[in-house]
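Page 37, continued from 36.
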């Protein structure tokens, strides 16, 4: 039996994307200060029963996050620059997806291994060799986050990330969905992708350590082909941790993952909170319309009033 649905999302350029149960909602602020809300139903690949299969759902969620994230970034870039919406072709999505995956695998999995291989002549233990590789991997990740965080545009993106977390935290706590009520909540969240990456790095160390120290070509191949397995295990651990954050031991173990989010979130201003609230409202309203059997979901949501008024999660019909 499926558990309750949890909303989530990501920051985009001058906006926030929220992934609902049946629809995705993107709120973006235009150059003139007005908000634009775009919602669209999710395909069956995002909502089918296969997503309930342990381990496999983690791989599907990772793929979904990349695909929806890239599409949302393309859309938000066009809107935030005041340009007419461009056609998002499959070629654009797959091209950017291939680049993102290649960059991530090369920098955070293959490069640490190559750097460690130069030190292997001085390391007798395979476990120690894998530990060194893991430390290098984490170090590169931290340097990368710190470096991009120096860019003003990225810092603004991180503030929208913080707004998304605050809004989801407030919604799950049953708070009124208004900026003043949401502002007090944390910018970290247990289901954040940044936390997921730290979990993946820990699992990668364990998995690769079990493989020992085979020839370099085989080690490189293992760093690539085992990523889906590691992602699947990491997703299950993140789900378990998020569901048991009331346990003191789980909170203590998970604390580094929450602390790491300080590098990828910032304190949002009221306007950014407003955007995140608008995106969440779009997703919730779309799911409620779907639950009622309504059609033309996007038009119904886009005609919703400004988010400046109060609304409460208890007052909104939520899908079961």
């Amino acid at each position: 039996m499926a558990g309750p649905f949890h909303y989530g999302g990501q920051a985009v350029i001058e906006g926030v994307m929220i992934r609902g149960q049946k629809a995705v909602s993107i709120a973006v602020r235009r150059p003139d200060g007005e908000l634009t809300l775009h919602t669209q139903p999710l395909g069956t690949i995002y909502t089918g029963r296969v997503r309930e299969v342990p381990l496999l759902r983690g791989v599907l969620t990772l793929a979904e996050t990349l695909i929806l994230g890239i599409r949302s970034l393309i859309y938000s870039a066009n809107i935030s620059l005041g340009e007419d919406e461009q056609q998002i072709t499959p070629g654009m999505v797959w091209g950017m997806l291939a680049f993102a995956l290649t960059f991530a695998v090369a920098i955070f999995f293959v490069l640490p291994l190559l750097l460690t291989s130069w030190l292997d002549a001085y390391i007798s233990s395979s476990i120690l060799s894998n530990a060194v590789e893991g430390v290098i991997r984490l170090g590169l990740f931290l340097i990368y986050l710190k470096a991009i965080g120096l860019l003003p545009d990225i810092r603004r993106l991180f503030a929208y990330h913080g707004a998304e977390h605050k809004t989801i935290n407030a919604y799950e706590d049953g708070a009124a969905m208004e900026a003043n009520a949401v502002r007090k909540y944390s910018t970290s969240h247990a289901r954040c992708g940044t936390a997921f990456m730290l979990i993946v790095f820990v699992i990668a160390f364990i998995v690769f350590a079990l493989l020992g120290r085979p020839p370099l070509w085989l080690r490189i191949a293992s760093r690539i082909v085992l990523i889906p397995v590691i992602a699947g295990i990491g997703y299950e651990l993140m789900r378990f941790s998020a569901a048991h954050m009331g346990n003191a031991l789980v909170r203590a173990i998970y604390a580094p993952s929450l602390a790491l989010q300080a590098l990828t979130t910032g304190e949002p201003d009221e306007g950014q909170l407003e955007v995140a609230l608008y995106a969440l409202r779009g997703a919730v309203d779309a799911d409620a319309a779907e639950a009622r059997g309504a059609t033309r979901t996007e038009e119904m949501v886009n005609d919703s009033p400004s988010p400046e008024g109060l609304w409460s999660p208890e007052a909104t019909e939520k899908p079961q």
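The chain has a mean pLDDT of 85. Flag for discussion at group meeting. The chain has one domain: 8-305.
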